[in-house]
Each structure stands twice: as C-alpha cells, then as structure tokens.
Sequence to fold (382 residues):
Amino acid sequence: MRTHLGEAFRLNQLNYDEIPDTPEELRTRNARIVQLCDWAEDVLDERTSALAEKIARARRAPEIIAGVRGDVALLRARTPQARDTIERLAARYSPEALAQVQSNPGEAEQLLGFAEHSAGVAERRREAGQREQANLALEASAESVRRAAALLDAVENFEVEALRAESTLAAIVEDSRGDIVVALKEPHSPGVEQAVDELQAALASLPTAGVNTDPFTQLDRLREANSGLDAAIAAARERAARPIPPLEHVRHAIDDADRQLAVARDVIAGHRGWIGADARTRLAESERIRIDLDHFLGRSAATATVIDEDHREQAMAMARRVAYLAAEALHLARRDIDSSRPQDPWGGGPGWGGGRRGGGGDMMGGILGGLVIGSVLDGIFD
Fold:
C-alpha cells in the first residue's frame, strides 16, 4: 500500500511542476493515479478486515476461554464411557479390528489436558498485554478440544459401523454362495475357475460363531472376491459370444508376418542408399510390433506350438499388423528404388515407348550408346 501511495504522490507532483504537459500526458497520468489509489484502498480494506477479525476475537477471548473449559468438562465426562465401550467391543471384535480406536480415550484425555493448559496460557498472556501470543494459545486450545471430541466420537461410531458391517457381511455371504452356483453353470474358463476358488477360500476363512472377528477386513475380502468373480464371468461370456481363432489360423498369420518382414528387411538392407524415410519408418514399426508379439505370448511366436485361447485374437491382430506394415514398407521401398534408377539417355523417358527398360532393353541401350560414343571419337581423331 505504501508503494502504491508513494507512486501516486510522485505522479501527482508532476502535474504541478514547471514542465508543461500535453492533455494526453495529463489524462494518462491521472488515470494511473486513480488506479494506484484504488489498489491502495483495496489493500487497506483487506488489512482492516483482517485486523477487525483479530480485534473481535481478542474481545471475545474471555467468552471463548469459558467455552473451551466447558467443552473440556463435557468431553472429560465422556471419556470413562468411551473406555467402557472399548472393553465391551473387545469381547466381540478382534484386536486388529479395534486397533483404530483402542487408544482413543487415552489420547483424548491428553488433548483435554493440553487444552486446559493452553487456555490458562491464553489468559495470562492476555493479562500481560501480549495479545498475539494469547490468540495463538487460544487457537491451540480450541483445536485440541476439537480433536479430542473427534476421537471420542470415533469410538461411538465404530460400534455402529461394526454392527452395520456384520449385517452387510451376512447378506454378502448368502449372495456369494448363490454366485458360485451360477458361476459353475457358466462356460468353462480358467479365469472363472480361479475366481470361484478365491471366493470359496474367502468364505472358508470366515470365523465360526463365538470367535472374535474383524468384520471390516472380512467384508473387504468378500467384496474383492465377488468383484473378481463378476469380472471373470463377464469376460467368459464375452469370449463365448465371439468365435475364438483356431490355432492354425494364428500360426499362419505369424508365419506370413515373418515372411513379409524378412522380404522387406532384405530389400531395404540391400538398397540402403536409395530407400527413403517412409519405408524405413514402416519397417521399424513392423519390427517393433513383432517384438511386442513375442513379449505378449511370453515366448518366441515363431516357435510357439500352444497359444492360450484368451491370447489368440490379440496375437492374430498383432501378426496381421506386422504383415501389413512390412508389405507397406516393401511397396514404398520399391517405389524409391524405381525412382532412383538412371533414366533413358535418349530423353524419351524411361525405357522404350516411355516404359522402364528391362534386361534386353538395358543391354541394347548400352550397345547403342557405345556406338554413338565411338563414332564421335573417330570423328575427333580424323
């Protein structure tokens, strides 16, 4: 704010010095002065609002301190009840389940003690005129009370959530057994069999009656197993709805891709100086996908005699992509080679009749060219 006002003051002095100003300069300078004053006013309003809030909080300090001490007394009265709740829950749930709230009553008691101490510090600092330190101590006291209340509430909420988890667990157990019956009627699939085994293992791990349990962990495990079974059944149904490529077709696609790739690789390697970037790029992409195909199958695709049904469609698509890119690379390479060959020396375009010369035509052109050159040299020496 001081910077803004200082600049506005200096600009205003320029309006009254001995140097005359044009109307445009005056308008620009006055607009800048108004802008700087507006900025300074905004900063002043912001600082005043923040200061007013601190002043209001300082004036309400005795009321806030009294409220903190009242909340401490109420929460301290709830602490024994929270301990009793923990003891009652320990007779029903496992230590692993109670770990999240076991120490809450003790931690709440410590926070309440800190809140009382901070409230006393705030009073003494306020009486000594140290308002900033008093406000900090008061804020720490109020925050400690809030955290202590949250810890005690968590104990009560745990009992309610545990009962709800047990009720939900019973319903999911019943649904899971029905899902297993349905899954066994689905088309044969290794994924479904594995998901059924995992769900049966989760059901078998449930403790018997009278044993302390952890309903939250059991519920999470059953939900995860159920989700896995649903996903496996959906995948099996989707695969059953579309035909699976026979192994022979997949092997044929892989062999064709390897042949196409080998031809394109040999042609490009034998004419390196004539091949453009397009052909080399297609070849590189084809080779990359061919390597990915080996990684996808987990072994060399060229020697693979067994390919899982779940992998056949993807393997065939990758092999066809390899063959397509290799064929495209070969086509572009041949185009580059044709365009790089020497043209017809007679100026009539490439080859006889405008076409590219073949083997006999190339020989005849060489003979005729030799005759022409020989006659020219004979004329020179004559």
